[in-house]
Design goal:
Largest sheet: 6 strands, mixed
Shape: globular
Distance between the termini: 80 Å
Structural class: alpha+beta
Number of helices: 14
Strand content: 15-25%
Helix content: 10-25%
Strand order of the largest sheet: 14-13-12-15-16-17
Number of strands: 23
Length: 648
């Protein structure tokens, strides 16, 4: 009897074969042998997918029985590669205009690309008609007719990543800075901005085959996404200021002034102890693979950086808010990671209650002289309790008085609320990053660990006074949401932006020199009831402007001020630093992307050419990624009309 039982058990076990998979990796190049970041890599016949990183690398686990990978990217012919004996597959994609004529499915029907402003969306669409065959002109996640089932739904192996959602994104309106005359407004005042969320969000749109809404393009955040080699402070001051003056690439009659700030870098082992509260949105809207699962992976990377002197608590919110992990020391990584792994999404979104509870927990564990910070991970889709942008602003303004900072990490697409995220970060003495993939999480939480979490200088403000003998008019590029009144500069109670360890900030002014005939300076009729008082200009000096820089030490409520004088001695554009030219290329790209009324002679081609020439070492590949992004945006732009479109 025992022998029979043993035979039956053995026979049963032989029916179970452990599943296995192959780990395939490689690099994707274009036909010029340049690496391609952002390429979608799909296990053919499944929804298992990944993307290449900034160096064109990818890695993916292929289940047993699957024999090929499909590679696709905007403006390139997709390739399906059969998996051979080697676990390394390098791929070369060929540029093609043909892919731009494929059909794209959006949350509001199939449309021409000039009309697409939101995220790629729901798969429940009516079958595409013959008249819609040219709609969209978008590749990347475009779906050709052959990839649709008979009922018009997308089949399982359509090149769709991440999973589509309903389009309901929101962005705060931007009233773009115009040119101001020095006679009437000689002072320009603004708060610094170290956020970079706009760039990664714009990248997400373009990599998904769409141009972003104009209000999603914040030029200062586009510029400040990149690292620049700005000299740091040489004394005990927390921040150094540097300037460079040349001609504007898009208008040779104008000057372009670059102001660069660099915060001192503190070694990780010298950073103060951290009291962190992870505030995680676990509502139903976070259920997508590029939301809560990406949040979990991102925060676990940060946990691995923590030291025994650091502490982490975890607060979650959905229909209500609750504590899932009390303050725990950084050496108990398994405990913290297990709490993160056990999170699940579901329910409505009581964001206001979650924020209030997170600040309460942070206050209970407050570290004097330490880094006290709430880290909010969400798509911003609050719908219970305090939820409007004004509600959030009032709540955060109240909470920030506690001395606790706020970092906002945005995730997801379709229902993404950028307007709320930006408001929270701006009003909460914090920073804002949009994380669209694990590579971006690594950049934000690992590579820029100190800058993201540790404040070096707070309430940082700049005020520029222009000399009317040298300057007729000027325009600040970006920073619309950071503008301050001139009186705010000397008001220590006025909140402004913070800079973290190693942070760099770049700001550009476009300047119209005195005596230049220009369409942008503007004029008004003489006043009827007042006679203008004669103004005496100091014309004997070669000073063009003076920059005043004000900041506070992290623990101080009293500001310090310093100043830099810029003389009217511009250098040729080709003689400027590669950082000047690359940052100018990003600014030009941003103006074209948002179709700025001040773009003048800007173009995608000029921005791409200048960025290529100023790529420099680019050890992390971010500048190469930008060039590819600009090339993709050019292909998607409404002005790019193909011959096949004209024929139809």
């Amino acid at each position: 009897m025992k022998q029979l039982l043993f035979i039956l058990i053995l026979a049963g076990l032989t029916g179970f074969k452990p599943t296995s998979s192959r780990h395939i990796s490689g690099t994707v190049y274009d036909d010029t042998r340049s690496v391609l970041p952002g390429v979608q890599v799909l296990v053919t016949g499944t929804r298992i997918a990944t993307q290449t990183d900034t160096k064109g690398h990818y890695a993916i686990d292929v289940p047993e029985g699957k024999t090929s990978l499909t590679f696709s990217f905007i403006g390139f012919e997709p390739q399906t590669i059969k998996i051979s004996k080697s676990n390394t597959i390098n791929v070369y994609l060929k540029a093609s205009f043909k892919t731009l004529n494929e059909v794209v499915v959006t949350g509001y029907g199939t449309q021409r690309k000039v009309n697409i402003t939101g995220s790629v969306a729901t798969i429940n669409q009516a079958p595409a008609s013959a008249n819609q065959k040219l709609a969209g002109k978008v590749a990347g996640i475009a779906v050709s007719k052959s990839k649709m089932s008979s009922n018009g739904y997308i089949t399982a192996d359509a090149r769709m990543m991440p999973p589509p959602t309903e389009n309901d994104e929101s962005y705060k309106g931007i009233n773009e800075n115009g040119f101001k005359t020095v006679d009437s407004e000689p002072l320009s005042t603004f708060s610094v901005d170290v956020d970079a969320a706009s760039y990664s969000n714009v990248r997400r749109f373009i990599n998904n085959g769409q141009l972003p809404p104009a209000d999603a393009v914040r030029i200062e955040e586009m510029i400040n996404y990149f690292h620049y080699n700005i000299p740091g402070p040489t004394n005990n001051e927390p921040v150094a200021i540097n300037t460079e003056l040349s001609s504007a690439p898009w208008n040779s009659k104008h000057r372009l002034l670059r102001i660069g700030l660099k915060a001192k870098t503190i070694a990780t082992d010298k950073l103060p102890a951290s009291n962190l509260v992870f505030l995680i949105d676990v509502s139903g809207s976070m259920n997508d693979v590029n939301k809560l699962p990406l949040v979990q992976s991102s925060l676990k990377m940060l946990v691995n950086q923590l030291r025994p002197l650091d502490r982490v608590a975890i607060v979650v919110y959905a229909g209500a808010a609750g504590v899932v992990l009390p303050a725990t020391t950084g050496d108990k990584k398994n405990t913290i990671n297990n709490a993160i792994d056990n999170l699940q999404a579901g329910g409505s979104t009581a964001g206001g209650a979650g924020i209030t509870l997170a600040y309460k927990i942070a206050q209970e564990n407050f570290m004097k002289g330490g880094n006290n910070r709430v880290m909010l991970a969400t798509d911003g889709d609050f719908n219970v309790g305090a939820s409007s942008d004004d509600d959030m602003e009032k709540l955060i303004e109240k909470e920030r008085e506690s001395g606790i900072s706020l970092s906002v990490l945005g995730f997801g697409m379709g229902n993404y609320k950028d307007s709320k995220m930006e408001t929270l970060a701006d009003k909460g003495n914090g920073n804002y990053a949009y994380i669209d993939n694990i590579t971006e999480a690594r950049k934000t939480l690992i590579s820029e660990f100190g800058g993201t979490l540790f404040t070096i200088a707070k309430d940082v403000k700049l005020q520029v006074e222009f000399n009317p003998a040298k300057v007729q008019a000027y325009r600040l590029l970006g920073y619309e949401n950071r503008a301050l009144n001139k009186e705010d500069f000397n008001n220590d109670k006025k909140d402004a932006g913070d800079m973290g360890s190693g942070h760099t900030v770049t700001a550009f002014y476009e300047i119209v020199p005195a005596g230049i005939k220009d369409d942008y300076s503007g004029s008004v009729d003489p006043l009827k009831y007042q006679k203008p008082k004669p103004v005496t200009y100091i014309s004997t000096t070669d000073e063009m402007l003076t920059i005043k820089f004000r900041y506070k030490q992290p623990t101080s409520s009293v500001s310090k001020v310093s100043q830099v004088i810029v003389k009217d001695t511009p250098i040729a554009l080709k003689a400027t630093s590669i950082d000047f030219r690359f940052a100018a290329a990003v600014a030009e790209f941003g103006m074209v992307l948002r179709d700025s009324q001040f773009k003048q002679h800007s173009s995608y081609d000029q921005a791409i050419q200048m960025a290529r020439a100023a790529k420099g070492e680019d050890t992390e590949g971010y500048r190469a990624e930008f060039i590819k992004l600009a090339e993709s945006a050019k292909l998607l732009s409404p002005g790019k009309v193909l011959a096949s479109d004209e024929e139809n």
